[in-house]
Amino acid sequence: MNFVRTVWLVTRKDLLIEARSKEILFTTLFFAISCVLVFAFGFVREGRALEDAAAAILWIAIAFSGTLALGRAFERERQSETLRALMIAPMPRPALYLGKLLGVVLLLAAVEVVIVPLVSLMFEAPLFEHGWLTLGLLATGTIGFAAVGTLFAAMLVRARSRDVLLPVLLYPITIPVIIAGVRGTAALLQADVDVSMARLWLSMLVFFDAVFVTLALWTFEPVMTE
Amino acid sequence: MLDFTSLTLTDVTRNFGRRRALHRVSLRAAAGEIIALLGPNGAGKSTLLSIVATLLVPTSGTVRYGDHDAAHAGAPLRARLGLLGHDLYIYPELSPAENLRFFAKVYGLDGVERRISAALEHAGLSHRRDDPVSGFSRGMRQRLALERALLHAPRLVLLDEPFTGLDDTATHALRQRLAMLRETGSIVLVTTHDVETIEGVIDRAVMLHNGALAELPAGTGSLRDRYRAVIARGAESSAR
Amino acid sequence: MFAYAPFMIVRAPYETTMGPISRIFYFHAPSGMTMFLSAFVCGIASAIYLFSRRDGADRVAVAAAELTAILGIIVLVTGPLWARKAWGVWWEWEPRLTSSLVLWLIFVAYLLLRRYGGPGSDRLAAGVAVFGMVNVPFVYWSVNLWRTMHPKTTVVPTLPPGMRGPFWYSFVAFTLLYIITLHLRTRLEKRRAELEVLYLALEE
Q1: C-alpha B112: how far from chain center
Q2: Is the predicted pLDDT of residue A44 greater than 90, yes or no?
Q3: Rounded distance between C-alpha atoms, residue C70 and residue C92, angstroms
């Protein structure tokens, strides 16, 4: 009970700060929109998008803007070293991890609320046809990406050249998430919809989330103490 | 609740690769004692505070809090520590009241609002309780940060350069606050390189030089003169 | 033993469709297998280091990570050579080649973090190695579902008897070479740590 309360305290604090400045939400959102635009130049020919381009662009935009949001979320904890204050507070450290993770996931969800309809509109992608499956893929994919990202961003707070190291470490590890997200979404967007394939990718993402959230909870404490 | 009345460091050494930050530091402090950690920049003061605050693990040596140690006591021990770092540990986007409320809840304290009012009173910030901290001067932030660190009435208080950016009134207030801590039986470690301001409030001063601890010679002369003498001697020996 | 391997390979039956390129197989496959082995050695050593703070485990982890990166280069250079001949393209997005690339990237990232992360990055890198190790099956599975084209794992048992001997010989030679190099590299790291201690002692 105490654990859940602490998780929520940390998340609520992050949301309150974000509500004040709106910095991460706005910058991340416009970065994601720019990503969609930039990739559109690569994947749209003669006014038509290449096959599967919509799914790819959507997930690349999520991954890129997610990296940005993660970096900023922890830069905020580094500025007046508040992460140290949280580390010396008597809360269970896994609760700190989960609180930060929840904050990042909610932020990315807010970005996706704009990005998904945008991609659907611009690339004539019927993303809402299988709404629940798409939602499931987005939710599990975002959680998986943020689960690894939150741990890495938290530990890089005290490393040098953290800005470049975050994507360098994060992308290879989250490749399964990207593949599953892109393929799962593409299966729902192609001409003959392959629902069973999307389900298969969804189950892989659920499994990935379970394994990596557990692993992060388990390694957070030893990684964070020098 | 876990409690202790003494802090004992035995042969604490910490290396960062080939750089030696601390070398066989031994120190004992009892409840109601205020100890100043003097030394020039880069002498290892902050490293020592981080180790005592359980944020850094020593390469060798032990730190004991009464009968407890950091590896086994964990969160209940951290609940008894208060740390004011050089970077203040407050969220600039939030107001003083929100900062204090968040930390009070994280520490699981009771009577949160009463404590917040008392803390703001001490910091002289009652009239600004709902303004965002980002608009505050360094001195105001410093006062708020100190109250944040003391909110949960910690047994062991660690203050890293608390006098930075304070004007004369605030310095005077901080000296009084330190005297209050002594009366409530806290163990206080204060780092500073500004010797004059703490003279008179502290019980004892120790000096860190190149990571090693040196007792300041007791006796005659002001704290500053004795400190200068040791620094000069250290410079001579390293020149040789 | 390693020196003798070329003779074994030359005497192995000549595969007519592939020509001399087929010989690369004796080099490519064992280095790939040792690379995955090395990744697991690094991951397990890192986990031990994270939870027990034993410096020895960290030394093994660095050594294994460097070897993973080197073996990865061998795999990624010899793989396309084989692919060019067998499939007519330099690079093929098939499961094992792709997961080798991902694995290689993870361990290069590990080394980059240690090199540029500043003090304390050894523990951070250990976290990355543990994640990298656990990630291997996920990468493999997902890439596998995405594309399939590599000669199946069953390639080894179905080899003609004349090729099987040299193959296993190469494999054992590679593993032994790996163990020896790992041991030497770990010892070097230990010497380095001892040197640090001596330097520190000298300062007193």
Answers
A1: 24
A2: no
A3: 21
Q: How far is A33 from chain B (nearest CA, A)?
A: 27
Q: Minimal Cα–Cα distance from A190 to chain B, Å? A: 46
Q: Which long-range contacts (CB under 8 A, 24 or more apart) does C151-155 make?
A: C151/C86
Q: How far apart are CA B118 and CA B125, in angstroms?
A: 10
How far is Cα B104 from Cα B98, in angstroms, rounded to an integer?
A: 10
Task: Kindly identify which residue of chain A lies nearest to residue C115, measuring between CA atoms.
Answer: A160
pLDDT along chain B (240 residues), means of 10: 88 83 90 89 87 90 88 86 90 94 93 93 90 90 92 93 83 88 92 80 85 71 71 56
Complex ipTM tops 0.85: yes
Question: Based on the domain organization, do B206 and B218 belong to the same domain?
Answer: yes
Q: Which residues of B touch C196 (CB under 8 A)?
A: 15, 17-18
- Does residue B76 lie in a domain region? yes
> Would B229 be classed as within a structural domain?
yes
Name the domain count of chain B. Answer: 2
Lowest pLDDT segment from A50-64, A195-209, B184-198: B184-198
Mutate to test the interface with B, among C50, C196, C199 (most CBs of B within 10 A): C196
Do residues B57 and B167 share a domain?
yes
- Cα torsion angle, A64, A65, A70, A76, sign: positive
Chain A segment 99-158 residues within 8 A of C by beta carbon are: 148, 151-152, 155-156, 158
- The CATH number of whichever domain residue B24 belongs to comes to 3.40.50.300
Contacts of B128 (CB under 8 A, 6+ apart): B96, B136, B140
Task: Kindly give the pairing relationship between strand B156-160 and strand B81-84.
Answer: parallel
CB contact (8 A) between residue C203 and residue B16 = no
- Asked if A73 and A14 touch (Cβ cutoff 8 Å), the reply is yes
Which residue do the tokens 């999307």 mark? A198
Cross-strand bridge partners of residue A45: A48
Return the domain boundaries, chain C. 22-203
Q: Is residue B180 part of a domain?
A: no
Q: Could you say which residues of chain C have pLDDT below 70?
A: 1-23, 147-164, 203-204
| Structural domain boundaries enclosing B137 | 93-153
B18, B23, B57 ranked by CB distance to C196: nearest: B18
The reply to whether B35 and B121 lie within a common domain is no
